[in-house]
Write a structure and sequence with these properties.
alpha+beta; 7-stranded mixed sheet; 4 helices; 26% strand
Length: 182
């Protein structure tokens, strides 16, 4: 898989993946990405700002994600704290094409971002089990709860190059120090 900045030519495939993801979330009872968010305009703006990326197998878009800074939703965190106060990049609006799920695509995205940035934050809905698992599997530590624009809570995670491997568990929402001995 190659990862490149998205272009307007990728928008139809991005929207197709978005609609499939939206339907999957609804079937699973996950209230994330409902009510027309993210929209075609959201992604077009991300492309204009050169912060939307796609992962491609050949010419096929199999994943996309936005890299955002700053994210003011991360200014307040409850039931925990950020371990690193340095500048970070936030991964947002990430999805994987349905027939590519379970193939390690999320891990490849995380590896790509880790190569480019020293400090990363990400969040997801507490019942989005697949994403919570992918995040913790890729050495992000659970940090607490943040709230997105519509006021709904999200599990917040963090990774920093400064730390040894992060230990975490999203099921019981325990806080794990990134400085844990392995």
């Amino acid at each position: 898989m190659i990862i490149v900045k998205a272009t307007l030519n990728d928008l139809d495939e991005i929207m197709s993946i978005t609609e499939d993801t939206r339907k999957f979330f609804k079937e699973q009872g996950i209230p994330q990405w409902q009510n027309e968010y993210p929209s075609r305009d959201t992604f077009a703006n991300d492309i204009k700002l050169e912060r939307l990326y796609v992962g491609k197998e050949g010419n096929e878009v199999v994943t996309f994600f936005a890299l955002v800074y700053p994210d003011h939703n991360y200014d307040y965190i409850e039931d925990g704290k950020w371990e690193d106060d340095s500048e970070y990049i936030a991964i947002h609006r990430m999805a994987v094409k349905a027939n590519y799920k379970g193939r390690g695509i999320a891990g490849k995205v995380f590896d790509y971002v880790k190569e480019e940035y020293d400090h990363i934050r990400i969040d997801t809905h507490k019942i989005n089990n697949a994403m919570n698992r992918a995040i913790t599997k890729n050495d992000f530590g659970y940090r607490g709860i943040i709230y997105v624009e519509d006021g709904t809570p999200r599990n917040a995670y963090e990774w920093s190059r400064k730390w040894p491997k992060v230990v975490g568990n999203f099921n019981n929402n325990k806080y794990y120090s990134s400085n844990a001995s392995l």
